Each structure stands twice: as C-alpha cells, then as structure tokens.
Amino acid sequence: MRRRLLRSLILLLVGTGIALPLAWRNEIERSLLPPGAAPELLNVPPGATADSVARDLWAMGHVRHPLVFRALVHARGAAARLRAGRYPIEPGLSLEDLLDRLQRGIAERHDVTIPEGRSILDIVELAAAQGVPRAAFLAAVRDPSPVRDLDPKAADLEGYLFPDTYDVPQGEEAATALAARMVQRFRSVVTSELPRIARSGLTLREVVTLASIVELETAREEERSRIAAVFLNRLEKGMRLQTDPTVIYALRKAGRWDGNIRKQDLELDSPYNTYRYAGLPPGPIGSPGRAAILAVLEPAPVDDLYFVSRNDGTHEFSETLTDHERAVDRFQRYRRSMRMPAAAPGGR
C-alpha cells in the first residue's frame, strides 16, 4: 500500500514537473489573438510598470492572470526596460513577442513632416496637427541643452530642429522622440561641414541664422547662393540687411503679426529688426534646410547688394542702388498694373 502511494506521488511530481513547463511555454508562446481577429492597441504610458501593463493585458483578456506577464518580465530581467508607446497586438503575436517589442520600443508609429524655414512655434503647431502632444513638444523644443555644445548662446532649439519627415511613436513619447530626432538629424548634416564653418569666419550660430533668412527669402534652389552672397556682401560693408522675414519674426515675438508689414513696422524696436539694427539678428528665425546652409558656406561669386521680387518666384539682383531702384520701379509698376499685393520680401 505504502509502495503504491509512493509510486503515485512520484508519478504526480514527475507529471507536474513536465506539465508546468509545458503550460508556461504555451502561455507565453500562444497567439494573443485568434486568426482573423481585428488588431488591438496596448497603450503603455511613460513610467508604466510591469504591474500596470500586466493588469491592462489581463483586462484585455490576453493573459489568464496578471502574474503571468509579471513572471515573464521577471524571468527576462526586463522590469526597467519597458518603453512607452502604443503597441499593436495582432493575430500571431505572442506574449513573448510583445515583451520584446516593449523592450525595444517597437510601437505604433506615424510620419510627421516639417518643411524648411519654419520657426519653433510653427513647428509645434504643425507637429500637434499631426498627432504630437503639443505641451510636451513645446517643453522639449524650449530646452537648449541638446545643442549646448554646438551653440552655448542658444536659449531654445530655434534653428536646430532640422526640417524633414520623421517616423515617431504614437502617444506622449512622440514629443521627446521627435525633438531628439530633429536635433540628431541637424547634427548629422552639420558635422561634416564644421571645418568649412570654421574657415568661413562665422560661428555655427551665425551660419544657421543667415541660412534661416536665406531659406525664407527664396524657394528657388538656384537663387540661394546668390541671396546668401547679397547678405554676406552687405555684412562686409556694414550695411543693414533690411530683410522682411526678420521683421515678421520680430512682430510675431511681439504678438503683433497680422499677416502684413506696414511702414511703421520697420521701426519696431527689436534686435531681430534688420531694418533698424545692423548685423545679423541675435539668432535663427527658423529651421533652414541643408541647401540653405550650404548656400551660406558657398555663396555665389558676385558683388550684388540688392534684390527684388520679379513676382514669379524669382528675383532681380543688382550691384548698385541706382540699378536696384530701377528694378523696384519696374516691378512695382508691373505689380500695380496686375493689381498685385505689395512687394514680396527681399533685400533693399
């Protein structure tokens, strides 16, 4: 009798020893959703713990008990490596696969496009319209620490958020991720140009500042180096830049921009007003693209000091004030005959 009980106990222990590992493997390797089921999203907020994720998975019906996920996290030593984001759960995805995604941050992502020349406030609004949390992103771009080594004078990331299309995670993590990616992209563009920047006689901040003006003065790639040359020539001669985009930027900072520049606006007392103050403005007025930066480093070999819009997206360039005034008169007359609005931005 005692031998039979012992034999039964041994068989039970052996069976349990086999069954438990099999049950465990089945629990963590089985598909969380049946074939053909609609994908679901697991939202993992910043600072989420393994316990909170386990409870969410249990509430969604993907684990039989929260302890299952917590045990897997403990076994993998992954408690401190769960990254925030929105994670798609589709048929075929196992609990083990999901934990791998949570560790590597392979969350649901989407593209955010930022065009050239936009200021920080423009970029914040554009990103917010594309799903990036506004308040968090605004806080991120107001922090200059990511570029402190490049520009000790930077008060924020104005000029250093490189315009491009970025894929970012969904949710709160998108804000910090986008800001970091944009600065990283800026670094990748300018790092190879640092020797030329040093030879240019300009600081990186000055190059970016002038490039941001060039970016806003023309959309024509073939004109950028010539417009850069105009401004560099004016700086060399001690002339004021007298460029409208800087006035617009100053008006926006003062909360006075309504879409039009008036004569009295040219007297606005702001260091960004290049009609009133000589030299470059104190910092960038937007985010230039690579072509605008290269235009400043490779200005056209010309003696031009002026340009005016031809009303077709191109500009008329002049070396002397007399020639410039003729060009202004010519295109002003054309504009009036066509009942076009006031002159487009351009050096005077």
Overview of the structural elements:
The protein has 348 residues and is mainly α. Helices cover 47% and strands 8% of the residues. It has three domains: 30-104, Endolytic murein transglycosylase (Dna Ligase, domain 1), CATH 3.30.1490; 109-191, no CATH class; 219-337, no CATH class. The strands form three sheets. It has a two-stranded antiparallel ribbon. Strands 3-4 form a two-stranded antiparallel sheet. A hairpin with a 5-residue loop joins strand 5 and strand 6.
Short structural summary:
The chain is mainly α.
Descriptive labels:
8% strand; mainly alpha; two-stranded antiparallel ribbon; 6 strands; 348 residues
Shape descriptor reads elongated
Number of helices: 13
The sequence of SSEs as H and E is HEHHEHEHHEHHHHHHEEH
The largest beta-sheet arranges its strands as 1-2
Instruction: Give the number of DSSP strands.
Output: 6
Q: Mean pLDDT across all residues, rounded?
A: 86
Oligomeric category: single chain
Q: Which sheet architecture does the biggest sheet show?
A: 2 strands, antiparallel
Estimated structural class: mainly alpha
The overall number of domains is 3
Residue fraction in strands: 5-15%
Helix percentage range: 40-55%
Q: Compute the gyration radius: what is it?
A: 30 Å
